[in-house]
Design goal:
5-stranded mixed beta sheet; globular; alpha/beta; 222 residues
Length: 222
């Protein structure tokens, strides 16, 4: 769904001047169509989540209620892969997509190109050598439950991360609903800033210890 400047200002409960200021500073995802600014609603919600921007409560209330999953539940649906091949963003994403378990109804080529499309908008590299690849519109995937697959890369890869460091760990997030997506992305981004979690991931410890550390932080902090 496309929004104009006025509707976007209402979404964030700010003035239109603030939206234009964000546009000038190039900090908000926007498209210029026939000399007018247009915004993708789902993209804005995801951006707001990553930037800790507040959304008008009445906007969120319009998103239908759905079962929310914990990071623990989502990781248990996914898997952990080591020595994932590739030397570029494109090749590691292709390798990851080919490895993960997916329903027969999901087109892997479509998923791969959707992940690339999202990366072209802005990097999913969150720093500390970690990226959270995902697609913009979760409803495009024909899946019943969300999943997170952890991929340890064979080679460090440039993801244009916010700290400019190369990425060697992917948390590939697949969601089945926008509310589920935003909730998981927020929780995961928070957990992956925890020093204890980062240390455990860097050590590439056994699966149980790694997951137990993540679950411990999720239960304690969220």
């Amino acid at each position: 769904m496309q929004l104009n400047v006025k509707e976007t200002a209402e979404l964030f409960n700010v003035s239109e001047k603030t939206i234009y200021r964000w546009i000038d500073k190039e900090i908000i995802p926007v498209y210029k169509i026939n000399n007018s600014y247009r915004f993708d609603r789902l993209e804005l919600l995801e951006w707001a989540n990553s930037q800790k921007k507040k959304i008008a409560p009445e906007v969120l209330s319009k998103i239908p209620e759905v079962k929310l999953y914990t990071i623990k539940e989502t990781l248990e649906i996914g898997n952990i892969f080591y020595r994932v091949n590739g030397k570029t963003k494109k090749t590691v994403l292709k390798s990851a997509v080919n490895l993960i378990k997916l329903p027969d109804t999901v087109d892997r080529k479509f998923l791969y190109h959707s992940l690339l499309s999202r990366e072209n908008l802005s990097s999913t590299g969150i720093g500390n050598g970690i990226a959270i690849p995902h697609i913009r519109n979760p409803f495009l995937l024909d899946i019943d439950k969300p999943s997170i697959n952890i991929c340890f890369l064979e080679n460090s890869v440039n993801f244009n991360a916010i700290d400019e460091k190369p990425v060697n760990i992917l948390f590939l997030l697949l969601s089945n609903h926008i509310r589920v997506h935003l909730n998981l992305l927020s929780r995961l981004s928070y957990i992956l800033q925890n020093k204890k979690v980062i240390k455990t991931l860097k050590e590439e410890t056994v699966r149980k210890k790694m997951l137990d550390t993540i679950y411990e932080v999720e239960k304690k902090e969220l």
